[in-house]
Model the fold of this input.
Amino acid sequence: MTGLAARNGGRIGLAALIAILLLGLGLRLDYAWEARAPVYDAIAYERIAANLEHGEGFSLGTNATQPASNYSPGLPLLAGAIYKLSGGVHERIARLVLALIGSLAVLFTYLIGRRLSGPAAGLTGAGIVAIYPALLEYQGMLMGEPLAATLLSGAILAFLWASVPAPTASRAGGAGSGVLARSPRGRGSQTRDRTRASRWLAPGLLLGALALVRPEYLGISLVIAVVAFAWNRSNWRAGAMNAAILLAGATVVVAPWTIHNAIALDRFVPISTGGGQVLFAGSYLPSGGDPERVGAEVLERHPGLTRKLSSRFVSDSATKRELAEVVVLRRLRLEQILAALAAQRYPEMETDEALARMGRERLWDDLSERPLDYGGFVAAKVWRAWSHGPRRVMERPGWEALHWALVGFGLLGLVVLARQRPSEALLFGVLLASVTAIVALLVASPRRVLVTLPLVAALAGVGSAWLWTTVAQRRPARG
Done:
């Protein structure tokens, strides 16, 4: 017990850690028990999970506005498994299980912050994650962000654990000197190398599970594998093996669902078919970077599409020509509008493939013909994603201030890390830059950034701990 306290800032630090962990767990269980009014995606996940339990497969039913394959499979598959084990569609049990998993993000944040800059940094980051309202509200419905945040922070923690050098059997300079000796390359050394390399399987498995919840992390896994390779510059073969094992772990998790898609959809779809839609919506320059404006802007520029949709989906007498756009926007969702546009433009193609092609065409045209406008568009999207948290509760002054402090101290922590621990700074910097690039390319939703909250909070802990130490050192001694 004494050793445990020593590693965690003494008895006071250990007591604070336990209190933060219990607070994070208690809040999540409370939100999961009481539930919150579900957003549209949460309703879709509920239906898919329930249909899995009822033996109807990965489907949304006959009245769905888009195919179930557009949705990430990870959360509904997990919820469906929970329903199967609990003997029925018990959504509250599923939410409680997800709350238990989500609470691990608090612990993982602490462990990451402690590794980077000591217990104080870890406690600061863990405290932020424990009470961050947007995470808690999503914990009260079947949403993938809390699960994804746990998987991402767990994957990064496993990455850092795998990168720890293995000790040798002997030490130079005698006992207690702390200097590791180089032992001859023999069978024992090769065994240690293989054992150490196998540790890279854990972050790979977690990244694969994360990709099933947030498909964009399938590409980010490749970037993290490159970082794993770069971390072992003195031995490129070992670095290549580490990266390969990491990617193999991710592939093992994702491959079964890719095979399922090949059978069910009769084409190659690694995870989901929603990429074309988010690419088109995310690259639609007239929206100004606000995804909620895409539908209105599309209809304004395609009046024939508005008339077609109003006659197809709206049958009451209110649909006069001058009211058609208003009625269509009120009654139809964006995916229905975009599906109709794709069918009009490329009727011979699948909807997601057509939207992906249209998105690439629009992206190329805007970059080549209006580069300055597109640069401002991207800046607006990045600002939208990082400037505030999702959910209306984050617009309250106190929580908005917390979010700004989190981002500001997180940037400071990354700078400090770049000076003190450049390898870890490379990992965090590349990952956050990749998420920002995805925000710039696809739909700019703060929900994408929310997944990184444990990492940003750990960095904020590093920044705040450094600032506190710096101020304390420069304060003149009394007396």
